[in-house]
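Quick one: structure for this chain?
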Amino acid sequence: MSSGLLISLILSHAMQSKPDLSLYITPGVTLFIKGTQKLPKKTDAEAAAQPVFLGYPHGPKTSEFVPDGRKTFSTTYQFSGDAPRLRLRVPYTADAMLCNTSQPGVIGSTYGDAHDLLANSVYFRGTDCLLTIDGTITHEGNFLVLHADKNAKLVTKLNYVQNHLGYFLWDPSRPLWGPPIVGWCSWAAYGQGVTEKDMKAAADFLNKNLLAYGYNIVQMDDGFQRTPQSGELVLKPGEHYSDFWTKPNDKFPSGLEALATYIKSKKITPGIWVGLYTPLGLTNSKDYVTGDDGKPYRGPWVNYAMNGLTDGADEAYFETIRVLKKQGWNYFKIDTLRHILYDNYRKNPFYWKFREESMEDAFRAVLTGVKQAAGGSYVLACWGTMPELAGLPNGARIGEDVGPDFASMRRSAKYIAQFHHLNNVVWRNDPDYMCLRLEPEKARSWASMVSLAGGQLMISDKPADYTPEHLNIMRRVSPTVFSKPVNLKQEKPDPEFFTLHCNKFGEDWTVVSHNAWQKVPARTVSLSDVGVVKGKYLAFDFWNQKFLGVVDSKLKLDALDEGHCQVVALRPVQNHPQVLGTERHISQGAYDLDAVKWDAAKATLSGTYVVGPGQRWNLTLYVPKGYKFDSVPKGIDAKQNGDVLTLTMPNAGGATRWSASFKKA
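Got it. Here's what it folds into:
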């Protein structure tokens, strides 16, 4: 096997008369098995690896890339034994991800070590190993425990992302980008007509209204540069090709360095778009990729392309990024990557064969050089889902351009479903910006699914388009939290549910967004349908700030119009006052709550609530029978309605300490 990982079976006789079975999957993944007295039947399987399905409306439907001889390897263990149940323990590691292979229509994520997730698989990112069992997986201390029938099957897949999913060149040891990526992009707001004045106004707007809520990037898109996308360029003596990117057109009279400085003065990161299309006329003319006629090959969108393994790549691509970085730009959206590969490199196989070079190596060299020139700044690969790029960019644009309409929101959901399993595994997903100048109900739906999916969260509208209601929506979904995907493969379009399973301060809860792609009636769903284990839960409607009651195994959902959503938080019922829901953030505590603690001796519930300026935010508590509300500290208002207690925080912003004292009823 290419990974060098071995699977072996040994018998351990320690601590009891009958042997326990241990499966050593990798050096970091060992299964300790109880509940069986027979060695499982082991069946190995291998198959030819397949290219990644892309499915974009333009270009090839698959990646068309599989390294020679690459195969997939899996092993199935068929258990049998006298005990009625099978119990397997796996040491828990920080890179372990609980997953589910049988949740159609649900795009799921986890935050922290979630315990309320209905899971049947565990993926270990560090070793790229997947285990799937006919049963369920739970947390118990420092172990993950696999529970199943005595005749269950356990399937192990090594090099899962690399070979089974087709991201062959990905290196799982590469670190991921941790901080949230939240901000504003100029493209759907102004297109190529964007001006210096527009960019400054956007920075002013974010600083005043959204910076305190996590929106800390202003990214300028296409429209500032002087370089032609097609044709030939005439360089004057002493002029560099990078000048056509770094010395902007007359809509930016102060220059790009001054603009970046202005944006930074607003405590915002300046971001910039760069398209890697190349005209003729560059100094390193010998380094253009050529066609069968020996002349530079011209393809759609990208125009001409430089061989990434030559000096010409520095002139065409890297020097521009270095100069922009020096000017103060610290977020780079790199476009036309797909066109370099598919519309140029792939069209000229003879060129690469003649030079005895790999087009994949040359393509990776392009983005590797960009990353080096960016000097630690965030690099987003636009149309970056090609496996040839896996492991290089910090983020990958996963779908098509969008606009201010329902069809675009639906298209965004399609690509989230298709690529969610790679988010915060291979890279940070970018479903493209959101155009939230829609009616508020649709804006909530779009913002909810993007935030819960845990990728990039960017907006692209003119600031004047936002009403106070739109601002409220944008504030309550930002920033995204660092989450891991529950899904293990590409899912179908129009996902009905987006879920976030959370664990923090010793508590578990799940947030469920029900999204309607057409008008739907009120209905009841099983908790298992949204990946939640059986039990009694408090249900809280986030957008309407409404207690929906105690649910047991089933959840009632409202009727929804097309493009609308309902977001519900589910918290296991406890025998004392507890948090019911928050108003500030859609994660319902993953971002905005900390140090929540019930002090039984003092009958006090307390914690920290991260709020924002501009309004007083509510925190809703549940008061069960046997308790009655007593008091809150000065500055916090409290209002009780039956078993619901609403605390209103001071209008101060930042982390607010809160507490509520109770008496036995």
